[in-house]
C-alpha cells in the first residue's frame, strides 16, 4: 500500500474538490469520490473532516501549483492513482467539458505525467461507465 502523509492527502483532496467544482456543480456523488480517495490513503482519520478542510483550502486558493507541487514529489504510481481519482471525479457526471480537459492537461504538465498515460486512464474509466 502506497502512503501519503495527511497534509498531502488534504492538499490533493483540495485539487479533487477543485476538479469537481470546475463545472460549477459539486454533487454528493463527487464528494463521495473525494472521500474514497481520502479513505484509500488515510484509514484512521475522519474522511469528512479532511474533506471539509480540503473544501476550505480550495475555496481560499486559486493556486493550482500548491496542489501539484505535492504530487510532483511522489512516485509514478501515486501520480497515476491521483490522475485516476481526478478523472473519476470529472467523468462522474457523464460529461467532460473543455475546462475539465484543460485542467487535466495542465495538471499532467505540472506533475510531469505523460499525456498518453492520462488518456489511457480516462478511456479505461469511461468504458466502465
Keywords:
129 residues, mainly alpha, TerB-like
Give an account of the 3D structure.
The chain has helices at 6-21, 28-41, 47-60, 64-72, 76-91, 98-110, 115-128. By secondary structure, it is mostly helical. It has a single domain (6-128), classed as Orthogonal Bundle (TerB-like). Helix 1 runs antiparallel to helix 2, helix 1 packs across helix 3 (47-60) and helix 2 (28-41) packs across helix 3. It is globular.
Indicate the topology:
Blueprint: H1 6-21, H2 28-41, H3 47-60, H4 64-72, H5 76-91, H6 98-110, H7 115-128
Distance between the termini: 26 Å
User: What structural category characterises the helix and strand content?
Assistant: mainly alpha
The major β-sheet equals: none
- In the CATH hierarchy, what is the superfamily? TerB-like
CATH topology: TerB-like
Broad shape: globular
Secondary structure tally, helices: 7
- Tell me the CATH architecture: Orthogonal Bundle
Q: Residue ranges: pLDDT <50 for 5 or more in a row?
A: none
Share of residues in helices: over 70%
CA radius of gyration is 13 Å
Kindly state the mean pLDDT as a whole number? Answer: 92
CATH C-level class:
Mainly Alpha
Number of domains: 1
